[in-house]
Amino acid sequence: MATSEANKETVARLFDAFRAGDTEAFNELIVQDYKQHNPQAGDGLQAVKDFFSQFGPVDVEVHRVIAEGDFVAVHSHYKTFNSAGVDIFRFSEDGKIIEHWDVLQEVPATTASGNDMFSQLS
């Protein structure tokens, strides 16, 4: 069974592939019958490859990675899409991504609190 640390490393490799626009790297990271909960993308490895291939390299900055059991959550700034996101990945016992959920929101120019969407305040 893959450890939480190994799963975090797999997610780091996935985000590196996003940044490089390298959807072929997904073959080593995601199972064929991958389940997708983003309403804009279909199920399966090929569907996620097709979804990301339309964008090319994605400028994304990861701010936090939290892992527990077979889940990894990532808080990121998808600069290409001007979006803040939390992605949740579920892993198989052999350490591949088998399921994905996300919550995305546009990054506003200002906030009511004055706090940005990514920094950690003391």
TrEMBL record:
Q: What is this protein called?
A: SnoaL-like domain-containing protein
**UniProt domain SnoaL-like: residue ranges:** 11-100
The record's annotation in InterPro entries points to: NTF2-like_dom_sf (IPR032710), SnoaL-like (IPR037401)
Q: Identify the domain of life.
A: Bacteria
